[in-house]
TrEMBL record:
This is Acyl-ACP--UDP-N-acetylglucosamine O-acyltransferase. It comes from Drouetiella hepatica Uher 2000/2452. GO terms for cellular component: carboxysome; membrane. Its EC number is 2.3.1.129. GO terms for biological process: lipid A biosynthetic process. GO terms for molecular function: acyl-[acyl-carrier-protein]-UDP-N-acetylglucosamine O-acyltransferase activity; structural constituent of carboxysome shell. InterPro entries: Acetyltransf_C, Acetyltransf_C_sf, Hexapep, Lipid_A_LpxA, Trimer_LpxA-like_sf.
Length: 275
């Protein structure tokens, strides 16, 4: 089977494309790019740098992946972007390579990045993340699996967004977003549990420990009890041994007590839960 390449595409002779890759009109693919089976590259896409793209990805018109980082510390080296399988990158998504040699910007599997999303240098996006239109990630942002990021918002450097978190549109995200929480606003605050996301992930149906019930109790300890944070975390340890609850507790502890972290976005402690 021959590669399905539009005659106007410009592809370096050393680029590695699986024979099933489709390449649209006026696409430009650089020397160190590798693309896996079944990936569709749309018109006017630019792939550059040391970029590895897995299988069955869809790159719509105008996507740019692997360009130089927007970082004054960048030394001109060619650094990595690693992308997994089954991702969708809509129109004009931009993903920058990492800043220093041996580092990488990483996108996992099954993610949807809608139009005009920007992923800065050294970001990590895990699996099954949904990022809506017009979201901009500064450098070194980490997004855990199955988070949902609503549209037209910015995320500060080194922010960590937890598993199954939901971030409301037009928010300003300058601190870590705890797993399983719904966050919104400018400045942002924790509004409630992301109950719909938790239920869709099947955590509400677990036979042992009832994860959703345990997370509700943890939410009340953290944001409604008035307890100091260290005491609330200690109380959470007594609720359940579920992996989800332990992940939430460990995420918050690292965010608040590890050197160099900014801490998590706060909630409105002592007020009624709005769900």
């Amino acid at each position: 089977m021959t590669t399905l390449i539009h005659p106007t595409a410009v592809i370096h002779s050393r680029a590695e494309l699986h024979p099933t890759v489709q390449v649209g009109a006026y696409a430009v693919i650089g020397e160190r790019v590798r693309v896996g089976a079944g990936t569709v590259i749309g018109a006017h896409v630019v792939l550059d740098g040391d970029t590895v793209i897995g299988d069955r990805n869809q790159l719509f018109s105008g996507v740019v992946i692997g360009s130089e980082p927007q970082d004054l510390k960048y030394d001109g080296s060619t650094n990595q972007v690693r992308i997994g399988d089954d991702n969708v990158f809509r129109e004009y998504v931009t993903i920058n390579q990492a800043t220093h040699a041996g580092e990488a910007t990483v996108i996992g599997n099954g993610n949807l990045l809608m139009a005009y999303v920007h992923v800065g240098h050294n970001c990590v996006i895990e699996d099954r993340v949904i990022i809506s239109n017009g979201v901009a990630f500064a450098g070194h942002v980490w997004v855990e699996s199955r988070a949902t990021i609503s549209g037209v918002l910015g995320v500060h450097q080194f922010v960590h967004i937890g598993r199954l978190a939901m971030v409301g549109g037009m928010s300003r995200i300058h601190r870590d977003v705890p797993p399983f929480m719904l966050v919104e606003g400018n400045p942002a605050w924790v509004r409630s549990l992301n109950r719909i996301g938790i239920q869709r992930a099947g955590l509400a149906d677990e036979a042992e420990g009832n994860t959703l019930r345990a997370l509700k109790k943890a939410f009340r300890l953290l944001y409604r009890s008035g307890l100091p944070l260290n005491q609330a975390l200690d109380q959470m340890e007594l609720l359940s041994d579920s992996e989800a609850l332990q992940h939430l507790r460990q995420f918050i502890r690292i965010s608040h007590y590890e050197a160099g972290r900014r801490g998590c976005i706060p909630g409105k402690r002592g007020t009624r839960n709005e769900e």
